[in-house]
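hi support,

uploading two proteins for the ticket. first:
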Amino acid sequence: MNNIKIFTLLALLLATIGTASAQHRKSSHGRQFDLELRGGINFCQIDGDASGSYNKLGFHGAVNTSFPINDDGRWRFLVELELTQKGSQIQNSSLDRHISLTYVEIPLMIAYDLLDSRQLRLAAGIAPAILAKANVTTDNIHDNLQSENYKTLDVLPICASIRYRFTEHIGIDVRYYNSMLNIAKENGSGTYRIFRSNKGQFSRLLQAGLIVSF
């Protein structure tokens, strides 16, 4: 990424943490804002790349805050800043290729807290992403042509989340992501989403990790 993108992302991160922390300190009835850190492992796949399993491992780390959008505070709007690694691993008789795509994402989700203690949270939304780094190797050699074949923006991944807190501060989080728009610039083959002209490659992944709530 260039310096402008890095500055923008850092500013967003600082603004998110600063706003959430300030509101957390001033919390009123129902605690208006919350703050969470989360991180863990990704199980990744790219639809349309000639491979069909979640066999590429990656990582994720994120900070998020949410605020209530109804009177009792169970319905919430969640904003997050996340660094996440996507991609795929293709190994067959004719091709050995590893695709590693590191994104900075901004998930925006509607969440609902369940149970009397609000320990269980379900959420769904979109996660626009900026490509920070693409690294593709073919037969264990860096493939510059393939590395440059991925778009800077993945505008419309959809996401869904289940989070459960064992205590007030510690819990687990499982998420599913699926890109709705083609992430590659050029495609020799591929699949499609929504409509046939939207053809190419689409990131798909499962996340599992720990969360720390404040």
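and the second one:
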Amino acid sequence: MRKLTFAVLAVSLVSVSVAGLKEEINASYGKIAVALKNKDIKAFEKLLRGITTPDFRYVERGTSQTLDQMVANMKMGMGQLGKVTRSKAYVVSVKESRNFATVVAVHDMAGTMVTPDKKTHTMDYVGTMTETYVKFNGKWKLKEMKVAKEVMKMDGKPFDPMGGGTPK
């Protein structure tokens, strides 16, 4: 009976811990989403610095970036958007051990963009991320964010900015 009670308590504690981490991450995502919706890169950077490890890496299409590089690229990308019409992110799943967690999350943004020919287009981005969190000085910190899947659309049609596709 004692073993069963201990097993039930252990499972309950893990469930509470995972729920706590998930809520903590979603709360951070909410603040980051507001900063991005407002195109406030300074707030975005400050929020990220508060939740990442010093050796944080962002990995997209096989290219690894530091936090500084990621923020610089976000600043450039956000500068190309006219208005951000949607910005949200949420946790899909959390697998947690004592000092390590793997999180699958969705990041979703949309906005308008004016191309050199003065036409306004809608841009949509939905990315599924695999994120690694570690305990750092007693707190959960984001160590790596890796793009597992991304879909970009311009005016509702698939679009690959890296492929040089510009709408007519």
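thanks. also noticed: Residues 152 and 160 are 7 Å apart (CA to CA).
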